[in-house]
Amino acid sequence: MMRAMYVIPAVVLVLGVLLSSVFIVDERKKALVLQFGQVTQVKEEPGLGFKLPLIQEVVYYEDRILGLPTTPIEVTMLDDRRLVVDAFARWRITDLIRFREAVGTGAEAQALRRLESIVNPAIQEVLGSVPSNRVLSEDRTALMNQIRDIARRQAANLGIEVVDVRLTRTDLPEQNLDATFNRMRAERQREAADEIARGGEAAQRVRATADRTVVELTSDARRQAEVIRGEADAERNGILAGAFGRDPEFFSFIRSLTAYEASLRGENSSIVMQPDSEFFNYLRSEIAPVDRPVETAPVAP
């Protein structure tokens, strides 16, 4: 019984020592084993590790790719235009010992500040050497790769690999937006005025051509009409002359009817002339009373 009282605490102590000498590295982590602040072991593979209990300690670091959203900065381009640029960098720790020596305690927060101080100057260096239109063109990817390469070379001293750098925003500063928009609006208005002027000029040419064509077609139609009318009159006169030559009395009768039709149009037509005028030769009747109008049958022209 007395032996059990000493054995159980001893077993517990031994188990505690064994457990404190074992550590587990997750597949998303890397670890450094420190002894009095000095690195004694680097554990980059996931699994179990061992350390001296109560003397050594384990510090874990991320093995995953991490992100860095940079603060917006103003960049003066080669054409003196200013742009507000936001970027996003992806990075990972590649050398644990160099990383710890470079950033010290508060590793990740300190690493973000150090890395941002590398990425932002790289952005200013690359974008400041090109005109602003290249940032908005297909060359944007090449520019981002240049920024990444510069940041990667400088970040290697921190034990960090810069995987990628992406420009998330490239806008004009607020104070320049109104002036830029007004200039763009004026340019578009000038282009619109030029298009309207060219369209009006083209419309004038089309309208002048159409008016000339109308005049030519109308003149030609009138000329043809006059020719046809003259030919018809000549043919009519020839027919009338032939009819007059064959039967002068019938021709005189037809001419009189035509004269009646032309003179007595309308409901209130009236003619003032002597009753015994030759104009009424075909209207007088010896049988009809003098005080009654003579009724005649209509004759087709």
Give a structural overview:
The chain has 301 residues and is an alpha+beta fold. Among the domains are: 14-62, no CATH class; 66-171, Tetrahydropterin Synthase, Chain A (2-Layer Sandwich). The protein is rod-shaped and about 175 Å long. It has 7 helices and 9 strands.
Q: Which fold name is given in CATH as the topology of the domain at 66-171?
A: Tetrahydropterin Synthase, Chain A
Q: If classified by CATH, what would the architecture of the domain at 66-171 be?
A: 2-Layer Sandwich
Which homologous superfamily in CATH is the superfamily of the domain at 66-171?
A: Band 7 domain
Alpha plus pi helix count: 7
- Based on secondary structure, the structural category is alpha+beta
What's a quick, concise take on this entry?
With 301 residues, the protein is of the alpha+beta class. Helix content is 52%, strand content 20%.
Please outline the helices and strands:
Elements: H1 2-20, E1 22-25, E2 29-35, E3 38-43, E4 47-50, E5 56-62, E6 66-69, E7 73-76, E8 82-93, H2 96-103, H3 107-127, H4 132-135, H5 140-155, E9 160-171, H6 174-246, H7 248-263
Antiparallel strand pairs: 1-4, 2-3, 2-5, 6-8, 7-8, 8-9
